[in-house]
Amino acid sequence: MRALDQGKNPTGRMCFITLLMFFIVHLCYLSGYLATRMLEHTLSSILPTLFAPKNYWRNSQTPLTSANISNRERSSALRTDRTGGPAEAHLPEHNKQATAVRQQVTAGYPDGNLFNYITAPKANSFRNEADTYALRVLNFSQAANTLRNVSNAVHNYSWIKGAYQSYPITVSQQDLDAAEDYRLVLYKNRPTFAGYIDFSHNPGPVYLSQIDYGYVLFPVGERIRPQLTASPQVFLSTLLTGEGFRLDLVEHFLQHYQNLKISRSNMLLSVNVNHRVSSSQLLELVRTVHKYSDYYDVFVGNWSSEALTFHQAHKLLAATRANDWIVTADSDEFHEVPHGNYPQFLRECDHQRVNFVRGIFYDRVSRTGSLAKLLPGKPLGAQFPMACQLFRGLPTGTPKKILAYKANLRINRGHHRLALCFFFVFRGYSFVSPFASCSSDTQLVLKPHARILPVHHFKWMAGIEDAYRYKAARYNVSLGLDKQIAKSYSEVLSHLSANNFRLDLQNTGFRCRPSLFKLAGHTTGSKVI
Fold first, then answer.
1. Residue range 150-163: average pLDDT?
2. Of the candidates 99, 116, 492, which has an alpha carbon nearest to the alpha carbon of residue 301?
């Protein structure tokens, strides 16, 4: 007992030391484990930044800022993808060819002043019908608007010699270089939906000098009404023409988007006027427009996708706010959207933080493939019941389409892809775009709707062959970008000619099937089958 009391028991001492060492070892192990996890977390944040390629579009929600673009990457992109390099600054004042075209538009009018003829005492004093094409529209809808109350500026247009005009601005080489750098870095790190973004390089001054930017008239009031609500609005933006078969489509088109619940006050319509449209066609077009819309303006000049892009940019900047939605459709394009209700569908997109909606063409053709004439009084879908994907067998252009987008974005010429800031800087259009700058500080957040929606394309009818001949000839004399377009039109004409001006529906590549889509009152979830 005395030995035990004096702590001289070797067995008890060994047990105590063993337990103490066990505790120390486990404490060291736990400390090491925690330190290792912290180190791994730190390295996982640092190493990708140092060594891994960056993805500026990660999760479709990561903004692109100067903080995540390095000079090294910018230089690397320039070395690997300098596609032609930035072109010279665009100098619109040297646009002699476009100026000559504009002068032809007002040939025969004193001082080029179209408005001097609004109150002309004798309608038969005009030399021919081509001389009256713009004046009849004005006479019909703007008799009260005389030179006494015309504003000097509307929607970034200036009043010049009897009509409103606007021209692209001159862009400095420094701004062109910054836009090109930004384009290349984005292209290098493009997201999975990049097919719906226009990454094309600077078209250059030679191409742009051919564009006729025309005149613009504002026959129904001068300004778009101010919005009275803070909630996002849904606008339809389109260009209408009285040329060929498109005049017969106009009422079907406007009625369709009315059925999709776009209000008449939010239909932003432009009317294209040129010498190929008779005065009677123009009057019919304007009367139809008045039935469905409170606003339209008139573009006087030779249509081109470039001129349309420039013109629409003015209108959209004046009419919309950043949180609004813009629906864009050509007059032969009929969107199929969930619920058959655009405002409801786009509210859902807002809740999902979606900011653009993609589409794909389904070409609607007659049951036999013939280029049938559109008959009045018969449902459009019943006359062209087949839904085909002609792009799979014919060079009909890209089938992609941007259906709708938030008003802080824009789309390119042709309306097939999103157009980002560099698209507008290259062309000198940035002053009428929503983009404040185009540099490494430009933020970019893009998120498409998950579904790619059908766009029913009603153009394969009587009159399309004449339109294709005109466009093939017109694009064939242009330079650069549009040569391939002219070739595509010619190839489609060759196919039609070889098949007695029918589309060969036996061609399995076209994937033609009957469509269940109804243009009016269609139900949620209707599909092309």
1. 77
2. 99
pLDDT digit string, tens, across residues 285-297: 888 888 998 888 8
Q: Indicate the pTM of the whole model.
A: 0.74
- How much helix, strand and coil, in percent to the nearest 5, is found in the chain? 45, 15, 40
**CA separation for the pair 390, 393 (Å, rounded):** 6
Query: 240: which residues sit within 8 A by CB, 6+ positions away?
Result: 246, 250, 253, 269, 270, 271, 272, 285, 289, 331
The 10s digit of each residue's pLDDT in 380-403 is: 999 999 999 988 888 777 899 999
Q: Alpha-carbon distance 279 to 134, whole Å?
A: 8
**Tokens 């999709």 found at:** 260
Backbone CA torsion sign across 255, 259, 260, 266: positive
- What tokens does 156 get? 């970034």
Q: Is the pLDDT score of 188 beyond 70? A: yes
CB 376 within 8 A of CB 288: no
Paired with 501 in beta bridges are none
Give the residue from 373, 413, 400, 390 showing the smallest Cα distance to 249: 373
How far apart are alpha carbons 220 and 294 in whole angstroms? 8
The per-residue b/e assignment along 441-468, b for 16 or more CB within 10 angstroms, e otherwise, is ebeeebbbbeebbbbbbbbbbbbbbeeb
Q: What pLDDT sits at residue 267? A: 94
